[in-house]
## 1
Amino acid sequence: MMNHSMKNQCKVKPGTIIEGKWHKKHYIILKELGFGANGIVYLAKWHNQQVALKMSDNGMSITSEVNVLKSFAKVQGSALGPSLLDVDDWERKSGQISFYVMEYIQGPEFMTFIEQKGISWMPVLTLQLLTDLERLHRNGWVFGDLKPENLIVTGPPARIRCIDVGGTTIKGRAIKEYTEFYDRGYWGLGSRKADSGYDLFAVAMIMINTVYPKRFNKTTGGIMQLRDHINQNKQLKKFEEVILGALQGHYHSAEEMRNGLLQIISKDRQDTRKVTRQTRSSHSAHRPVKQKKQKKSGRIETFLIFTIVILLYIFYIYGQLI
């Protein structure tokens, strides 16, 4: 968490005008969006455009995050992080504050979107996330503090985006920021060294989080507790192989995990289609039987009517003769 002295120093009221020392751009603060270990993020206005402005008294932290955003921009096709718009300093009486300005990504948070649209969106968004993580990992970065609060769903069409790159770490180094529930070290299932598996563990925990929105506390810890929670829910049980694979570090890349998830989704769709076809065939098979019964009933009815008519005719002739 961010220390109180830093938060107080970076705390500004709505309506405050932030003027860049070097680029002379003016930003009007609208409201606070959130704060973390390394600064506060505000919604700001610049030339009738809404932007996100992050400030911190830790210049090194700002420089690190700016470098991450610049690296993201070089990752072709990646939509994980916001676009970087400006980097500057703001001079105030209490001292100089470093800040950077980025694209303001609008939309519901990951968990809110799932609650609104349904759990069927979970694998779809997970596939998107794994695609972006694969590009990020190939460029030598690990996202680190991956959690639903840092994920926004834009659209339509629905697209998952990230709003905080503060925990992004170069591969091989120690993870800079983490949240316990999504941290493999907390669950005793690996180190806090930045590698692809660290992010994939977090992805698996996000999948679990979608059906346990309030999360749950660690008791015994380890894979047994997490497996028990997976087995208690039919939605998670469907993806058990992939989730456990990520939790236990069996996947070497995000692409490998994505392919495993795709196979399960594909199989599930095939099974659904098979059941649908069988149901239709069953209905079709009953139609001829019904039609045969109707035809047989019609023949009996016709025969009875014909017999009655003949009998009536015979009685009529017999009466005439008498």
Note: The beta strands are 17-19, 26-36, 39-46, 49-56, 84-92, 95-103, 141-142, 151-154, 159-162, 169-170.
## 2
Amino acid sequence: MDFQFLLELTVNGALTGWMYSLVALGIVLIYKSSGVPNLAQGAMVMIAAYLVWVFSHMLALPIVLALLLALVAMFFLGLLTERLLLRRMVGQPIIMVVMLTLGLESLLRGIGPGFLGAAPKSLDLGLNMMPIIVGEVFINREYLVGAAIGGVMVVLSLLFFRTRVGTKLRAVSDDHVSCWAVGISVERAVGISWGLAGIAAVAAGAMWGSVQGVDWTLTTLLFPAIAVVILGGLDSIYGVLVAGLIVGVLGSVIPGYVDPLVGGGTRDVVTSLIILLTIMFRPHGIFGREDIERV
């Protein structure tokens, strides 16, 4: 076995996994705050990437300003989603809410390419594209930056949930009725959680859009993100980093050796097996609470 090849697959796989964590974080933020499994996060990442591209390329704004405007826009998109869609589902079975987010995913997936074209669009964040070479191991610089941003986002999220507002969001997730009884605005809390997921989507969309271009395929990031969320635990913020590391390494190392033998396509198989085995043997994930209901 070529140790250098294995090391390169492992390092870049770990960084890719932490890039997946940027997408998974949005799902966890909503679930931890409102108890809603959000299947629209992949499309939100795509829309966020399109917004950054529009602001930076079509309007020719500096990339920093484009990112800030995208953050504001996606936060308000999250608030609007709660106000127009989720608020109407209060009291409905959780499966109906899940189906609503799936429908939102399909709607958003068509809106971006429908208005701006389906051709991939290059998103330049001003990063140096040259790989970092450590010894004889090549490390993708964009993945490294994305992994660092993922770590920062997780830390900020953990700190946020220790604030007064964050405590209210966790209380809403535990018991809506009790929160209403003590005067906590459940609707506002759920709206904030969707706004936070929109902010996470900007970070994920900008980084992944820079890596692979901006088009509808960004929505496919939902699949590995779900694997990260299920493995780490639906309500665990730091779980996305640990699970992202595992999903990324396994999704890099195994295909790296098996793909040449079978002709490719094993990454999705590995991701699917992670989801199935986790649900079978540890349905609440590594760090999730055991009282979580899965649909």
Note: Residues 11-216 form one domain.
## 3
Amino acid sequence: MLLFQTIPLILAAWQGTVGAILGFIWLSRRHEHAYGWLAAAMAVGVIQQFIPFPTHQILHGFLGASVPLESALVLHFAARFTGLKVSSRLGWFVFLPSLIILAASAIGDPEVVRTTYMLLGPASIGVFVVLTAVILGWSALFRSERSSFFLGSTLTAVLVFWVHDALTVLDALPGERIFLGRLSYSVVLIAIGIGLTLRVVQALNQADDFAGRLFRQVRDAEEKLRASFAREEERSRKEALAAERTRLMRDLHDGLGGQLVSIVALAEQQHGGSATVIGDAARAALKDLRLVIDAMEEIDGDLMLVLGSWRERISAQLRAHSIQLEWQVLTPGGLPIFPGLRPWHVIQVIRLLDEAVTNAVKHSGAKKLRVIIETIHDVPEEASGRISVEDDGSGFDLCIPRVAASPAHPRTGRGLLNMKRRAELCGALLTISSGQQGTRVSLILPSHFGTTPSADDRDGAAGERH
């Protein structure tokens, strides 16, 4: 009962379940022909198990033809599984024994069916099983495929049991006539089906891992591409700003600058108080225009480039008043590179220094003016800069509130307030010391310049004049 009823029924149920799974896999992946052939072989085995006996002659013929048919389907599975190319004519030829047995059941009596099966059935089954073993062995040996080695090992068990059944039919073995080939064949098919299902699960896991890696790579590529686009947009923006800055500088220099030079020349040709006033006003406007043009240059945080132009301008101003200029750079490179330095910062710094030089020229009576530039390291790992303007003049008393001075010196302290205001806008520290040996104006620049102030602050600072 256990050997011929219970175990075959359990194996048929397993075989049907695994065959259904393989069939669904093949329907979802039509290019995986191996799953379709093995599912068809399992379906034939399940149908064979549930056909009652004795039965109709046609069904009896199907029972005889089912085993070579199942073997032919497994042979096709082995060929597709190992990637062996089989011609269509040879592929259909392996089904010929099953067709002959079915034809015999349709036209002959049971004895003809039995004789036909005995002539074709065992021989064809043996040939197909041997061919399957050869295909799997070739794939395992020459392609080193572990799955082919596993399938070949299970097929060896089938061969052993089929030899046992053949010897039993020939009465070559003593004892009861027990046939185990059918049971071993079902077990092997189930094992192969489970192995293929696990192979699909493993492939799906690998596909998920690959999809995860691909998703991460795509995400990283998107981040890099986004950063590249941001850099490209920033570069395009800077190029557009530089082009517009260049155009504006050229228009100011060639247009307004040329007109101011013409006004100065006409004022010098005329004589009289009004011409002198007009000439001085034009020279001041021209000086301020040159300051704006210099500040608009792209300096990438290097304030020394602007200080070089400023040195040339104050040298001419000091020579006109017979004041000697000493330019001292105490550290290599002078000032560090200032991140965040913008043109409006440069304008405030240069106008503050202009105010210091102008005060020295007008009020100190100095014979010498010294400009000292250096890099300082008040905070570790952060460098800032200091610009000092010193003169050897008479100095003044910082405690006297000069803004509300006498009518003879109206609002003479306005320039100092403007200087402090400009330093505050830039986030810089301004210190002023004065005595009998002269005046020292020291401007300590921040290591990082702040953000752009409001428009009112910029306009207020730009409109201040001493």
Note: The mean pLDDT is 77.
